Each structure stands twice: as C-alpha cells, then as structure tokens.
Amino acid sequence: MGRKIHLLLAVVVLGLVAVPLLVLARREYAGSRGRAQGGKVVRLAGRDWGFPSPFLAYPRGPGYLHTSLVFDTLLWKDERGPIGLLAESWTVSKDNRRYTFRLRRNVHWQDGARLTAHDVAFSYEYLKRHGYSWVDLGVVKSAKARDDYTVVIETTQPYAPFLVDIAGSVPVIPKHIWEKVSDPWKFTGPEAAIGSGPFRLESYSKEHGTYSYVANRDYFLGRPKIERLQYVAVGDECLALKTGAIDALMLWSRTLDALPEFQGKPEYKVLQGPGAWVLRIVFNHRDPVFGKREVRRALSLALDLDEVAERLRHGRVVPGRPGFLPPSSPWAAQDIEPYRYDPKAARAMLSAARLPRRKYTLLTSPDYVREAEYVQAQARAVGLDFSVKSLPASTLDALLREGKFQVAITGHGGIGGDPDVLRRCFCPSGTEGSTESAGGNIWSTYGYDDPALDELAAAQLRESDPEKRRALVRQMQRIIARDVPTIALWYPKIYFVYRPSAFDGWFFTPGGISVGIPTAENKLAFVERKAK
Amino acid sequence: MKLRVGKIVLKAGQYLAVILIILAFNFLLPRLMPGDPTDFLTGTDVDAPYVMDSQTRARLLEYYGLDKPLPVQFLHYLGHLARGDLSYSIYYKTPVSRLLAQRLPWTLLLAGTAFALSTLLGVLLGAFSAFRAGSRLDRTLTGVLLGIRATPEYLMGMLAILAFGVALRVLPLGGATSPFPRYSSSFAAAADILRHLILPAAVLTIAQVADVFLTMRNTMVSILGEPYLLLAEAKALPLRRRIFSYGMRNAILPLYSRMGIRVGLLATGAIFVENVFNYPGLGRLAYEATMVHDYPTLQGMFLVTALAIVGANLLVDATYRLIDPRAGAAGEEA
Predict the structure, then answer these.
(1) Which CATH class name applies to A10-248+494-526?
(2) Are the Cβ atoms of B108 and A397 closer than 8 angstroms?
(3) What interface predicted TM-score (ipTM) does this complex get?
(4) DSSP A172
(5) Beta strand pairing status for A269-273 and A75-77?
C-alpha cells in the first residue's frame, strides 16, 4: 500500500510538471506557426502595456506609444516640434473656439479603405462618448465633417493647448469598423488594431508582454526604414542591451547608474533628453503651519539644492527651480532667481512665525528617503522638526489625493509639455476655464488657492498668441516662486542609449510626445519622410 | 463506516468555512489599501504625464461597479463567483479567468519543477546528512543550506543571470520563450520552454531545498535511535537500505504533512523569481496587480492561491492515513 501511494504521489508531481509543459508547448507551437520573420528588425524591452487600441492600451506613456504606432492623429511632433500629420493644414476661428482641419488626400486605413473627415469626426465623438482615459475630451463640444477632407472641431471654450494636447494626441479610428462596436473596452481582435499608422500590429502576447509590428509599406509619409519593430520580454534591460537582446533603452533615476557602461563605447550612442519630471516637496495648505507662506519660504531657504543634486544624486539630476517648470522647458521663466540657500534667514523667519514646538510628519516613498532625510536634517538645523515616514509610492499617492498628510516628497511627469500643467498643479477646481477638476489628484497642491494665479491660469488658457501666453505663464511662475506652494527639488537627466548598428535615427521630441512623454521612441524616427 | 462518513462531512464543512473566510478576505484585503484602481491607471512614473480628470474617473468607477457600497460590491462578487465568473480586470482589461488561464500553466511548470526537484534533493541530502550527523559533511551541508535559506530569491536570481546569462551567455536572461520564435514542432517549443525554465527553476529549487533538507535531517536524526534502526544496524544491513527502507519511510511523514505550507512558500518564492526573470506566471501578475490595485485580478489570484493551499492540505488529510496507517488506527481508537 505504502509503495503504491508513493508511486501515486510521484505520478501526481510529475503530472504537475508534464501537463503544463505539454499544454504550453502545444500553445506556443500553434502560436508560432506561419509567423513571418526577416527584414531589418529593431528590438526594444517590452512588457504588457495592453492591446494597442485607444481603449485597451494602458493609459501610461508606453501604452500610448504602442497605440501611436498603429493609429495617427491630426497633428504630431517631429524633432523640431508640432507638424500636421493627418491634417495638411488648419485654421482657428477668431474666438479661438473653432478649429478647421484640411486632411491629406492620400491616406488609407491598413485594410485599404480611404481615411476621410468622417472618420476624424466619428473618432472624436466616439472617444468622447465612451470616455478616453489618455486625454480629457471635456473641452470638445462637437466634431463634424464639412466634406470628405475637411473637419471642424468646436470647443466649449478657448483652449490654448488644443492643437498639441488634443489634436496632437487623439487617435483617429476607422468609422467603418468602430461604429459597430458598442463596448470598446472589450473589443479585441485583428480589426481593433487597424489604423493608418506606419506600423501594423503583427502579433501581441499579453502573457509574455511581447509585441511585433510590421512596416506599413503604403504609409502616406513614406515607407518605414525598418521592417519590424519588436518589443521583447527581458529581465534586466541594461544587461539585455549589453548582450544584444534589445537595441535601445532609456536610462533615468536608478537605472542611470548603468550609464558609464555605455558612454564612450563605439558600439553605443547616447542621447540626453529633457527632464520632464519633477521631485518636489508638497505641502498641505490646509495645515495651520504649512498653510503659512513664511514657513514654506523658510524651508526653501534651509535647503541647498545644488548639494542635493551633486551629493545625493551624484550630478545626475538638475536642481529644482522656484518657477516649477524645468529649465529645459521652452516655457520656463529663465530670469527667475534660483532658490537661495540661507539657513540664517530661514531660522529668523521661523522664530518670527512662533510655531508650536512639535514634530511634523514628512511622508515619502522608498526611492526618495535620502531626500527626505536631507530635508529632515536641514529643517532641524533651522528649528523645524520632522519625522520621516516612508510608504509605498501607490499608498503615498492615495494619501496625497485625500489630503491626509502635512508635508510629503513625491514626483510626477508631465511638466515638459504644455504650460497648462501650472494650472492643473496650482489652481483648485472651479477655476474659470477649467476643463477638469485640478483639486484632489496626486499633482495638485492640496488646499492652495491664489486668486491672482487663478486669473492668470484662466487667461493663459484662452490666449492663442504664443508670445502673449508666454508672458502670462511667466507671471504665473513668478507668483509660484513668491508663494512657494511647492519646492521643486530636482529634475532628472534622462538618457537614451542605443546601438547605432541596429538603428540610428532616434531623437527626443521637443515637449515630449503627445502631452509630454519624454522619450526617443517617436514613430516618425522610423519613417523615411518624403520632401513635400 | 458511519463514523468515517461523518468525519468526512465534518472535514468538508471545515474546509467550506475556510473557503468562505478566504472569499471575504480576498474581497476586503485589496480594498484596505489606500486609493482605488483608477489612481493607478495613470501614475507618477516618467512615462505617465497625464492624470485622469474627475469625470473620467467617476465614469470608470461606475463602469466597474466601484461606486457602489462595499456590501453591494461583495454580493456582486459572490454572485459572479457562483456563476463561475471571476470578473473583468480593470487594469488588464480582460476577463480575469482568461488572464489566470494564460498565466497559471507557467507557474505550475515553474513551481511544479521546483517542488519536485527540491523535494527529491532535500530528502536525499537530509537523510544522508542525518546518517552522517556531526561529520564535516553534515556540518558543511547544514551551514551552506542555512546560508541559502537566508539569501533572498531575487539576489540569487540576479547572480544566476549575471553568471549564466551575461558572463557565460549559455542561458537566456529572462522570459519564458525565445522572442517571436517559429517552431518546427511542439517538441521544439518544449525544448525552448525548458531552456528558459532552467535558471528560474534552479533558483526556486535552491531557495526551497533548505526547508526540505532541514525538516528531513532533523526528523531523521530524531528517529536514528529508534530500536528498529538499531536492529537494522545490528543485522549489518547496508547503509542505503537502512536509509531508504527503514529511515526515510518514517522520516518523510512530517515533510508530507507540511505540504500545504510548502505550496504557500512556493507561491511566495515564485513572486520574486518570476519578477527577476520576467517569467509570465501568476507571481509576476500578483506583483503587477498589487502595484496597480487591480481588485478583480487580485481577488482571482488570491482565490487560486488559497484554493491551491487548501487543496494541498485536503490531499494530505485524505491520503495521510494511506501513507501512515498508524494515524488512522490512532484516530479510530480515539
């Protein structure tokens, strides 16, 4: 009996290994049959960012980039800035509420049908109706096709970021396919990935996180320079680039430690990109202590941000600026004086404020404990006592959104694109011209409200003249520098390392792709663009 | 016979109660984390410049039923579960059952291999070490395996990648198959899968073997003084026979009763190993789903893991008497 049961157990254990192996081998073999290969292939590190349709791609930068390979937008950005993509030209009405786009005539969907203004109008209406989680379409009032190649989009209010943030971000989907789809969140299959973009989805595996795109030879801007763009699953990306498993990667933050491995070696090239991300101190302005401007200013005077950049981050970041926008942003007011380090003045300001003697809580996430401990030490030296509490980043985000904090160190992207980010970060919901609730998200500066800033925020949103808008944005940055609603600690340096023998056309996009994704993975890098 | 049926019914009732408690925890635990899934559809990474507006957020909460009170959500969860529906993933935007069906075979393959190999190795080494208790070999083996037990899986994984993937370049750095392969047959696919399995399975095996080794060695040492083993030695039976036929059959029993715990340890180990090797199993899914607060996926994951542990315990309970007839006899006498 004993022997039999041992045998039975051995069979069960062997079955545990053999059955899955058999199932997986059959599944993988079936999936690989008929798979085309060959041509010039560029490989990047992949993980699952969702099926590349506007609804199923995860609404994060990489998810959007996958969608952008297959679907085009009215406008896009190349290495110099915004250009017409599906739109050949456009005009804006005098009241800045109506945009008329003339479309190119030689654009076809990947299934051969012609792309017309009806598709564009349908896309805007459809995405607005079903909720598109990459950009807020609340400002779009209507989209109508005037004829086959003219589309008119009306907005509910003048909205200066419209051309880049909306016309340059909203994917145009084929009406003849999507008009039959009632629940786009569950629409998959080959038809869901038919776009007009430079690449066609060849295969996608959610479990492996792999994507293979094949060149759309009939792409209206010209044939892509590579045959396939593939995203493959790798463990460590730096090791994968070194061993040739991938051809390029982006380095920033922790992975930046690997940069010397690639610098100065002939087989690699390194591009430096804009640091469109910020690590900053956020204050709960409803707190009786940190709601006071002099306390925040005193803390800013107690910090030596050059020291933070050099000693804490080994020169791999750029010190924060009082105007909030990074120095690489074309909208940054370069004439605002940097944060001053003056602990004596900080101490004097704090003693004048007569704060109760108690310990305050400084929240952070594990990646930024070094900065929190530095702030703690510097603040203690000027008479402000903090206890540091490190929480998982996701938990910290939730507490910030709910206003359950006093002071926190957190970071986010999106500051390299349109300057409307200032409104979203520093103006509470209900601001005139607001298209979304700026309060209560992880970006917003909890409880901060300055009527002059709100007014400027609303004015810049209406202003279509770039120079006039620049002046308004500059004034906003001055108020932010004066009020210190936040303290920008640093902006990361971002690098893109690639193997030129595999592909040598990469470029960082000014202002980032779409609403500001700082990457060199721009689809136009792969396109042999014809001279107009 | 009646008594036995009654016992089985009682045991089944106990397991049912355990499952109900598990379901309640499955539902509540993810929701105890601050925030909700819509917070994590975007985020603070360099690649997430957009933060969702409140209208879209409200629409998504409504779409996924997260705007309803918790008791209503729990009833919906039970209702769906009763129909065999594990709900729809908020982050992965696919039915959870499909997600689990895709990932489960990979974890079964990885954890099953590690379970089989670590059991075999641990039992053999543990028995051998116990018979040589106090010798240099025993001390070395115990020391090395205690050291391994204290080493985190992810560190072992990184070292294995550096040695075999980067320095020697004999094994892949990660993933479960070659990228975009074209296999000539299912055998070729199996060979590729096995090649990718070597490093993660080896790391998980090594991480698990210490537990088996120590249990086996300690039990074996404690029974070495038993009269039947002294008799076997007095009869000058060869060492191999004394180990396998006399010692191991008895020493293996505590190991067998720890099977449920080992399944739990394997599931935890798989989370680390799958993440280091980018292996597409449930461990990696568990990590990703936790980071993005994907409630339905987490509920499904916890359910599968809990059922696997409960199932392993049930199997041990049901078969223990077959392996050790004394247990049944003692139970019936009582």
Answers:
(1) alpha beta
(2) no
(3) 0.83
(4) P
(5) unpaired
